[in-house]
Amino acid sequence: MFAGELPSAEPSAIVSLFWIAAAAVLAPVISRLLLRGAVPGVVLLLLFGVLLGPHALGWAGTAGGVDLLSELGLGMLFLLAGYELDPRLLGGHSGRTAWLTWLAGLVLALGMVTLSATDADFPARIAVAIAATSTALGTLLPIVKKDGLLGKPLGRAVLAHGAVGELGPVLAMSILLTSRSVGGALVVLALFAVAAALIGLVPQRMLDRIPGLGRLLGESSGGSEQLPVRVVFLLLLTLMMVAEVFDLDVVLGAFAAGTILRRLVASQPPSAGHPALESSLETVGYGVLIPIFFVTSGMGIDVSAVTAAPGLWLLFVLAIVLARGIPVLLSERFVPHGENLSSRRERAQLALYASTGLPIIVAVTQVATSSGLLSENLASTLVAAGATTVLLFPFAARLLGDRRVRTAPD
Predict the structure, then answer these.
(1) How far apart, in whole angstroms, are the C-alpha atoms of residue 300 and residue 195?
(2) What is the 3-state secondary structure (H, E, C) of 2-40?
(3) Which end of the chain is more exposed for a tag (fewer CB within 10 A), N or C?
(4) Under DSSP, is residue 47 helix (H, G, I), strand (E, B) or coil?
(5) Cβ distance 127 to 120 under 8 Å?
């Protein structure tokens, strides 16, 4: 620090959390009452983050533990996404088609980035390509649930492509955005998978071999104990810690925790308390931690950097559509897998949902900027492009669905 220079006055954690909490309350109110649902609450959370953050008013920051709460929010977002995911969607003909479609999109995105940025090094191109092929399954789940699509073919297709669109980029980050060789990264991923399987086996064996443990969880699911919720947080933090020990992104650990939790819950009767557990996790996640993640993510967006290069912003949005939406649209039309959507309108809806990306884009840009692969300005533009897809694409998909309903024969 130069002589006479005063330290920057950064808001305290309590002040920051006050403004974040205010944003979390105002976002759904504005979205539902003033905007009639036209702008999703998650986009408003990002916009509040931009407004409150260091690039605008400077009323809130991530110091004093706010960044840790944000990381827990990211973990809860992906835990809930992993919990909602039916593993059967990742297998079979439809699952294999979703994986091949994502890989084709990744190659296409890498080719587009290479042609448009010949001076960028290969890891930077990979980072942008991975971001362009992500799907915000955790963000889409509440939308798909609200619209009653989960049990329908379109909902199942959204879940399949969404799961691959989250898990694929996470795996790609772990393999390609690392200082290890590809072979070394694959070995580490395999070791992590073994560790996750062993960790998931411990509570399963305890439930099977300790009489009354499941009943105890059910009896302790309310009041001041909330034992099942505490167990889930222990599972989440354990898998996130293991991912960090293996030098992998914690998102992978959170997603693995969600899939393990789903398997554990499926093996227990309802008397074990898992209906109340699901409600409690959504309350803690969507009510507290996940809004913190989205608001703090918005704090990292430099609006001046985005507005200085609006063409690049629009180019990124277009790249996401071309690299993610178009391959999904074409695969549903031309690659038979037994559950293809027959309606042209539903295929277009699926492509729009699959092109909706944000949390993975945030995670990729955080990893890439921390390792020096991407500049802060480019990362801001990428995140802004992801926010644009969340703002526009689900809304456009809903309009297509409403039009289909209105024009359907009696």
Answers:
(1) 33
(2) CCCCCCCCCCCHHHHHHHHHHHHHHHHHHHHHHCCCCCC
(3) C
(4) helix
(5) no
User: How far, in Å, CA of 231 to CA of 268, rounded?
Assistant: 15
Distance between CA atoms of residues 373 and 120, nearest Å: 9
Q: Which residues contact 97 (CB under 8 A, 6 or more apart)?
A: 331, 335, 337
Q: How far apart are CA 35 and CA 43, in angstroms?
A: 12
Residue 8 has pLDDT above 90, yes or no: no
**Residue range 200-246, pLDDT digits in tens:** 888 888 877 887 777 777 767 777 778 888 989 999 999 999 998 98
Pull the structure tokens for residue 37. Answer: 């649902």
Rounded to whole angstroms, how far apart are CA atoms 165 and 101? 10
E strands present in 31-148: none
Pairwise CA distance, residues 176 & 95, whole Å? 23
Please, what is the average pLDDT of the chain?
84
Distance between CA 62 and CA 309 in Å, rounded? 26
Q: In the numeric block, which tokens belong to residue 48?
A: 């509040």
CA–CA separation, 243 vs 252, rounded Å? 7
Q: Letter for the amino acid at 410?
A: D
Closest alpha carbon to 356 in 172, 140, 141, 147: 140
Taking the C-alpha atoms of residue 156 and residue 292, their distance in angstroms, rounded to an integer, is 29
**Which ranges constitute the DSSP H helices of 220-289?**
227-245, 250-266, 274-284
297 and 46 Cβ atoms separated by less than 8 Å: yes
Residues 6+ apart with CB under 8 A from 369: 375, 376, 379
CA 299, chain centre distance (Å)? 17
At 289 the pLDDT is: 94
